[in-house]
Please model this.
Amino acid sequence: MKNFNILVVDDEPVARQSLSDILRLEGYTVTAMPNGELAVEHVRRYSVDLILLDLKMPGMNGLDVVQVVNQISPDTEIILLTAYGSMESAVQALRQRVHDYLLKPASPLQIIESVNRGLERRAARLRESTDAINGTPIQKMADGTEVDLMRRSITSGELEESLTPAEGHLLKVFLENTGKVFSHRELVLMVQGYDVSQREAQEILRPLVSRLRHKLSTFPNLYNRIVSVRGTGYVFEIE
Model:
């Protein structure tokens, strides 16, 4: 089985089911969502390698989803599907770091080939960026706990925990800035890539920090170092 997580987003139930079936038969792990809002929430919470995304949807359309995903999970590849193709929308999509642009109805072969190319491109990009994270993607704590920033995984003995892209980015910011107090707004900008008000930042950051601390609960050397600074934000205390 292929160890990749693919998200299918289409407001048409038949198309959504058909795309999911095609990819599952190829051995991929597939999650399907009927709209852009649910798709974005899924990407915030879970690791997604590639998204197969309908362009024309009510509410958040495909390009809206692309903009948000590029901010919160820049490693995720995106393929746009639409029955209303035009050169203008195709160029706009490609400018936003979309891997491919297919017109409906795309054949199973076209879909599979595009997905395979997207995943290959993602793997190549991740390999190239491995050395960009502090010279090494793995950081070892004093108690032996290892944090692999590239794979977004934490290990200690037989214990292992995987992080979502947003959780991984947040932990990376903390590890690279031990002892520095960050406001909620600064952390949202660094982790999610967009600027919001302090009040909005608290609402965005609170559940993210809560999910990260929950996953770190079995790694006390990390868990105990994330400290809330009343009225300001958070600090990752020096080991």
Remarks:
- The longest strand covers residues 77-82.
